[in-house]
Predict the 3D structure of the following.
Amino acid sequence: MRIVLDAMGGDRAPQVVIDGAVQAAREYGVEILLVGREDVVRAELTRYDTAGLSLPIVHASQVIEMEEHPAAAVKVKPDSSMVVGMEAIKRGEAQAFVSAGNSGGVMAAALLRLGRLRGIKRPALAAIFPFPSGPCLVLDVGANTDCKPEWLLQFGIMGSVYMERVLGVTRPRVGLLSNGEEETKGSIVVQEAHQLLKGSDLRFIGNVEGKDVPTGMADVVVSDGFAGNVVVKLAEGVAKMLLGLIREEIQRHPLTMLGGLLAKPAFEGVRTRLDYAEHGGAPLLGVDGVVIIGHGRSNARAIKNAVRVAVQAVEGGMLEAIKSGITEVKG
Amino acid sequence: MRIVLDAMGGDRAPQVVIDGAVQAAREYGVEILLVGREDVVRAELTRYDTAGLSLPIVHASQVIEMEEHPAAAVKVKPDSSMVVGMEAIKRGEAQAFVSAGNSGGVMAAALLRLGRLRGIKRPALAAIFPFPSGPCLVLDVGANTDCKPEWLLQFGIMGSVYMERVLGVTRPRVGLLSNGEEETKGSIVVQEAHQLLKGSDLRFIGNVEGKDVPTGMADVVVSDGFAGNVVVKLAEGVAKMLLGLIREEIQRHPLTMLGGLLAKPAFEGVRTRLDYAEHGGAPLLGVDGVVIIGHGRSNARAIKNAVRVAVQAVEGGMLEAIKSGITEVKG
């Protein structure tokens, strides 16, 4: 199997990306096409023992930066690692694309070069929460702010397929984000989407409220990109605020400081269990190719795991499963 | 000053409500009209020393329960404590209404008996976050799921007036909840609301993302009732999940357990600093009366503080300030 890895994507690219690529090539036995500035990537590669690994470099002279406007960047940078990487997928030279770069850029490049899967109205950007109870996929988290009910149904189908085929969750529970449990709650669009999801073959568990999301009640949380984005960023913000506050309170007194010191392994345990790096990346679903987007702050382990997720998506036949899932609902 | 207190509202009513009422009457020197089943309220009152306090009982034979459908309940229970209490406000016998009961019921009763303030398109239900950096008002949190841009502007005006007149925040910073900082981000409604807020006299700081909310970047966060509800409930859920996970990890090993024991005052400090009871309740804004809704799980201190908030709203001239704020924008 061949995976395209955007060597220039991520806050600490290309260093951690190459590090992760070497680890992934060794661990999963796949060929990894490193797309980026050849000299930079080659220089970085010399720091590792790559004997027996297949890590060819595909030169791309341009880089789409984190703060660039996605659609515009993709157009003015046709030789960027993202666009060049997508072209390799399009030509069938590789089976999946992985990047920890500008997620809007990845999406724009994917739409431009791969296009949508047949029958898909709108691709969705997903995020994965590593909750104590298991991974939870939230989608859309920013690609589509104003959604139609049918798009939300498709997000549910794509999310369910992903959790089943890629993360191995049997019959994933699909919930619809709303402001109340009852099916009469929610915006007009959400109420209509509720009926569509209810009538589908998905294992739809009904509306889920904000408080239900972290309990892991649903494996897939369907939302428009507005509320989904708020969910992902708020969860991050609340956790940061709370941990900061605990740290502050612990440092107020020598005894609590000692307590904090002794309890340190517990806090590290919490960090490990909530570590996004474990799941590597989240998919861009609905485009005609396997596209995995890692967190901008990805470390080498996150990159390695993002490659693993891409491998699992290819092996699990994710694209075909989405296509047939969409067709069944329509038929 | 006279405050109406719904003696039957809240998970632990009437016990904690009467307890809080006695404390509030003593501490703030106000008269508190206890609306509810006379025999029950009277029996409860005998447990306290109420010498010198003014705590008259207004009989109401019915109670709107937590799980009842608000609009329906208000209609079939015209002698409920909520409806009877609102009528006392309407007749000018008291200046504010406080309840820790079914918030939808309070809103339905307020709309039925008090109606909207002149010029207000839709009343908004607010929630207050006790962040380390200070209180943050989020509105709407569930009264209006599908909103028009103009309603969001009015939420901003009402929220700003509340923070200034009631909680004493000078020139409150008003943020608009969105899925990105740029003014081009957000749903179509949010983008239009951005322009309205930008053109207003409010201290508008632009869009705020989910991650910004807990930092206290904004004193007022404007949102439709769908996303606002998700924000309030998700924040609660994430905090609960995280604290549960910390507890679990601490209990894994004798040493971390000892650490947890020593650090206990720090955790209690965190709890105190994030205690909703400190702020007592959040306002229903846009109805023609001061209405404060406490958390269903209110304890006596929360009830007492909800009365304090009501007193501050009356003394701060909140209603008049909202009226003139709305007129200025229109004129």
Remarks:
- The first helix of chain B runs from residue 15 to 28.
- The mean pLDDT of chain B is 94.
